[in-house]
């Protein structure tokens, strides 16, 4: 069947389509309803069924004779280690870890927070939670203690799983002091913290609260898989919202499993037994779906890579991994390819490796600029697929479905909607716009399995953030258009979220941090274009009257404050003191206009601007640090 036929089936009769797709998984008891459209707030899939995601990702493959196949390859460029875990090994290790968690009192529905670097124990932690029906919440290692504390307070974990350290080029990141600081600030205290000691740095343990991972696992009995409802949460993953308070995206168990299984075959074109290398981090949704759950559910082999695309040791790192582990599909963010292109402009290092296993490159996490797309296409000589999705959607919304029917590529577009999703472009009244017109990208309800059913303990917040503005639709927060052949073009966000090296961050959250500086009266953070990271944040600060300290000193403190409160991942390196911020007469700060000026784009002087001189001052100031260079001025 071709793409269009499958697409129509999935949209016209989702119950039949996904009910059929669900046959790819094991269920302990069948559903009474494939889709309950009325279940509040966002609809529910496979109602009444029971299953276990860990059983589907591990035990069932062992039972089906895949026990000796490699499930996970840990490749650490940071330590020079490569480890292979078969499905049988991984099942045993996960069952023991689940036993250790059970001994600490973790059971079905309890939350477990995972704060870990890219080591196999991080994947084991997630799967062990799934085995017990506990709900994991993984927090990315590049976040600071305050961000960690916010997530601990919201998820209220019974147990936290962590490691002594992460390894970044040139430095060892001690995780335990960050975790201790977060717990000291947190109103919620977990019962226990299980710490995996890495040889690079041994963390001191507090016997009243901390347990050594290896000792706990050695003493544990393996735990069986606990049956859960298909609608029970598998995990909560926090992502940036429009304020400093992150949103706890809930993922259900059954629907997610079915969607991932379908996607591996039909989008990624993978066959069980093949190798998928997703170069991301388990702290992001890409890591959840395509480092851990997707490949394992499907019976493929996943590569968990601790390292960077460049500098560990060079821009040939991905090619080395493809050769060494016979990778079929590579998935990463465009920023990784921009980094490779910067260090190895001709792609010469590719020539050093045998890439004969390599079949497709998938890119997501940020807009794939046509330059990067062409550079990659010209060199890798396999299909390069830009695909669009979000933490909330859990799996791709628009993609070139290589397993169904590959389509011609249009640079700048992640191709057409994936079966199950209906992408419409809406005007401010929520009316669909004709092909080619730019508006808000919205997904018509019902959403397919795998998409978030709600926010963690916040149904009202879910409705308000996603369902209220456009009745009958889910609001993506992205703006763009769909052309007359159904190709989706994602142009920008309609909120204050920016994308820094494929990492989603809230400028509103950074403004909250800067506003807390004692000398800052008001501030604005904008995302400015960056050749490597796509966008980086830049802060503009107006000081309180009477502050006479040197501006450079305060700018330095502001940079340190964001790193301390949000984390290095924010890549906040530039703060500028300015005399005033440009605003409309009603007091709205003109962030969009400032962003255009910074990027050297032509901009429109807003008719409602209060003080046009403020924009010129900002432009002058931005030029002192290398922005606002093209000289493009206000369009008449
Ligand atoms: N723990 C602690 N710190 C971390 C971290 C982690 N898990 N991950 C990143 N950091 C730190 C980095 O060390 C860096 O710190 P610095 O300011 O002291 O240099 C900062 O956070 C920013 O990290 P990163 O965004 O990785 O930038 P980089 O300059 O180190 O590397 C790229 C740039 C392009 C190579 C890198 O961003 C990359 O590999 N991106 C791939 C895209 C990706 O994984 N996207 C996820 C969604 S698909
Ligand atoms: P995250 O939730 O971190 O995965 O970030 C999701 C956001 O990243 C989306 O809402 C988009 O703004 C952006 N994004 C992800 N993939 C793409 C893509 N292929 N093209 C354009 N933007 C993308």
UniProtKB/TrEMBL annotation:
InterPro entries: ACAS_N, AMP-bd_C, AMP-bd_C_sf, AMP-binding_CS, AMP-dep_synth/lig_dom, ANL_N_sf
Any Pfam family matching the protein: ACAS_N
Residues covered by the AMP-dependent synthetase/ligase domain: 61-444
A GO-annotated cellular component: intracellular organelle lumen
GO molecular function, one term: propionate-CoA ligase activity
Domain Acetyl-coenzyme A synthetase N-terminal: 3-57
Catalytic activity, EC: 6.2.1.17
Limits of the AMP-binding enzyme C-terminal domain: 510-588
Keywords: Ligase
PANTHER family per record: ACYL-COA SYNTHETASE, ACYL-COA SYNTHETASE SHORT-CHAIN FAMILY MEMBER 3, MITOCHONDRIAL
Family of the protein in this entry: Belongs to the ATP-dependent AMP-binding enzyme family.
Protein name: Propionyl-CoA synthetase
Species name: Elstera cyanobacteriorum
Classification of source organism: Bacteria, Pseudomonadati, Pseudomonadota, Alphaproteobacteria, Rhodospirillales
Gene from which the chain derives: prpE
